[in-house]
Amino acid sequence: MGDRRAIFITGGGSGIGRAVAVYFGQRGWFVGLGDIDKAGMRETEEMIGNGFVYSHPLDVRDRSAWDEALDAFCVAAGGRIDVLFNNAGVPLGGSLTENSAEEIERTLDINLKGVLFGAQAAYPYLKQTAPGSCLLNTASAAGLYGTPGASVYSATKFGVRAVTESLDGEWAVDGINVRSLMPSFIDTPLLNHNPNARSNEDIRQRVTGAGLEITPVADVAAAAWAAIHGDKLHTVVGKTAKTLAFGARWLPGRVRKQTRALTRPMGE
Fold first, then answer.
1. Domains in the chain and their CATH numbers?
2. Burial of 169 by CB count in 10 Å (0-12 exposed, 13-18 middle, 19+ buried)?
3. Spatial separation of the C-alpha atoms in residues 47 and 30, rounded to whole Å
4. Backbone dihedral angles phi then psi of residue 257, each to the nearest 5 degrees
5. For residue 265, what are the contacts with CB-CB under 8 A and spacing of at least 6?
6. Is 54 a catalytic residue?
7. In 3D, which of 126, 236, 220, 221 has the Cα closest to residue 176?
8. Residue 259, burial from CB neighbour count under 10 angstroms (0-12, 13-18, 19+)
9. Measuring CA to CA, which residue among 136, 233, 135, 130 is closest to residue 174?
10. Of these residues, 54, 125, 145, 153, which one is catalytic?
């Protein structure tokens, strides 16, 4: 087994995945990238630029593809995987009554089923490098309190939170750490997407129009490093997420009232 620690990152072709890949690569880690975006992964490789990076095309919805990708990365990394960063995800906004069956299934499959498949596939590798290995999942502030106009997305992120908490207990005996990141709106290309197929206004416009803060992606990369090296189960990232976390815990009645007062859900 090699001495250089290794992290495999889904959604490594852009956004949070790319920022975390560069952050860890600059700190001497061997970085694995999994994504359906081959060009994006090449760009991330160039940004890391030290040769200790390996890319593998991966659709997180395909369970057998997970085994193939992690096996290939483990070989490339010298026989070890210390961290799996379950990060790949897609946005979906708008009223539930307006979301198509295809949109709902795709969001559930990528955001939730992909996380479960990744955890399942990574387990033997993380057990081998334990104690101190880690499964890190990207949840969201949408996993703290359900957001009007984002019921499907919120459901997936509550699910990721539940998976994290369940496996934190389940895998403790194996010495595997399980953690989540709960960012609010992060400055990544996802903000430039429309919330759903029926919307003609991108998410970034909606966020800025509501006066909400957009957190720099570098903040999430630093939070990922802290999460993997610390003992906090959930790491909340960004002012909006921290405010919501406080309110959901200590002022749930006020949060409910404010939530019900939202008259223009995301995607309208």
1. 6-260 (3.40.50.720)
2. exposed
3. 14
4. -65, -45
5. 93, 94, 95, 148, 149, 150
6. no
7. 126
8. middle
9. 130
10. 153
Neighbours of 110 (CB within 10 A): 21
**Cis bond before residue 131 (omega within 30° of 0):** yes
Three-state DSSP state, 152: helix
Which three-class secondary structure state does DSSP give residue 140? coil
In sequence order, what DSSP letters do the residues of 117-134 get, joined into one string?
HHHHHHHHHHHHH-SS-E
Q: Which amino acid is at 111?
A: N
Residue type, 253: G
Are 193 and 203 in contact by the 8 Å Cβ rule? The answer is: yes
Report d(CA 79, CA 90) in Å as an integer. 31
Residues of the chain below pLDDT 70: 185-213, 262-268
Count CB-CB contacts under 10 A for residue 243: 16
Closest CA to 88 of 61, 56, 69: 61
pTM, two decimals, is 0.88
- Beta strands in 104-248, from DSSP E residues, in sequence order: 134-138, 177-183, 234-237
Q: What confidence tens digit (pLDDT) does each residue in 29-77 have?
A: 999 999 999 999 999 999 998 889 999 999 999 999 999 999 999 999 9
Return d(Cα 173, Cα 196) in angstroms, integer: 42
Q: How many CB atoms within 10 Å of residue 198?
A: 14
Q: Which amino acid is at 189?
A: P
- 117: tokens are 């498949």
